[in-house]
Amino acid sequence: MAAAQIELSPAQLAGLAELARETGKTQEDLLRDAVDSLLEDAGLDALDWRTILRAGEGLWEHRTDLPDFEQLRAELDRDLWNK
Q1: Most buried among 12, 17, 20, 58, using CB within 10 Å?
Q2: What would the mean pLDDT of 12-34 be, rounded to a whole number?
Q3: Using CA atoms, how far apart are residues 72 and 79, in angstroms rounded to an integer?
Q4: Sign of the dihedral through C-alpha 39, 51, 26, 2
Q5: What is the dihedral of CA 61, 63, 64, 70, to 10 degrees?
Q6: 41-76 per-position pLDDT tens digit
Q7: Measured distance CA(76)–CA(45) in Å, rounded
């Protein structure tokens, strides 16, 4: 597993600690469950990277400040073959 650092308010920390005591789960387990629930509600499976990748489809579609990637790729290909 990868680690993630988050900032919680004092009230959130206190509530999380109380919930951990009541349920017998660790705070980390409760946070992982919450993230899984959030991803499920958004229609994303935490274990399916393809679904998550597809959710970003079209993210840069209407950007006008990006370079011409076809031209960049052609220049890189040309430079590669000239070496």
Answers
A1: 20
A2: 96
A3: 11
A4: negative
A5: -50
A6: 887 766 677 777 788 888 888 888 888 888 888 888
A7: 36
Report yes or no on 17 lying in a domain.
Answer: yes
What does the mean pLDDT of the chain come to?
86
Q: What is the pLDDT of residue 2?
A: 85
pLDDT at 82: 66
* Number of C-beta neighbours around residue 24 at 10 A: 7
What is the extent of the structural domain holding 14?
A: 7-57
Q: Which two tokens stand for residue 38?
A: 């959030």
82 part of a folded domain: no
| Residue 83 within a domain | no
In the chain, alpha helices (H): 10-23, 27-41, 49-55, 69-81
Q: For residues 30 and 13, is the Cβ–Cβ distance under 8 A?
A: no
